[in-house]
C-alpha cells in the first residue's frame, strides 16, 4: 500500500500545474521585446500549455490595452489562443512601416553614447534597411570630428560603436580638463577655440587608429640620410657620413 501511495504522489507531482511566473509590465513601445521576455519566463517556469500562457498574459494587461484586443479576451479561440493574442497585440501596438521610417530618420545622438544610438537604430531599422545603410545613417548622426575618424575604418559595427564610445569619452574628458586649466565657464567657452582643439584631437586620434601617413613615415626614415641620399636615394653618387641609408639598396 505504501508503494501504491508513493506512485500516486509521483503522478500528482508530474501533473501539477506549473506556478505562473511574474511577468513584466506590458510595454506598448516594444511589444515584440516584451513577448520575448514573457516567453523566456514561460520556458524557465516550464509552462507550455496554451491556456496557461494565455491566462498569464490576459492577467497582466491593463484595461486600455485589453480593450484593444477585446474580442480575444472575451471570446478566445478554442485552440492557439496564446499565439492569437500575441499576434494581435503585436499588430495593434507596433509602428507601421512609414512610422518606423520616420522614426529612424529623426533619431539624433543628443546626450547619449554613440553605441546607445546605434542600438536604438538597430531595434527599428534592421528589418527596414541594410546594415551598410544603417551604418552610414548612424555615422551621419555623430559629431563631424568623430565621424571623420570612424568612417576611415572597415570594422564591424559592434567594434565601431565601442570605439565611438571611447573616443567620445576621451574628447569629453579633454574638453573638461582644458576648461579647468583656463578657468573658463562652460557656457562662456569660445566656440572657435573648441572647434580648433577638437580638430587637433581628431588628428591625434586618427593617427592612433590608422597609423601615420606613408609620406610622414618616409620622411622620418629619410631624416637620418645624408643630403645626397635624401635627394637621389639609391641613385646617389656620393655619401656623406653619418648616413643610415642601406648600403645594399
UniProtKB/TrEMBL annotation:
Region Disordered, annotated ranges: 1-23
A Pfam entry, by short name: DUF7041
Start-end of Basic and acidic residues biased regions: 8-19
InterPro entries from the UniProt entry: DUF7041 (IPR055469)
Domain DUF7041, chain residue ranges per copy: 23-103
Name under which the protein is recorded: DUF7041 domain-containing protein
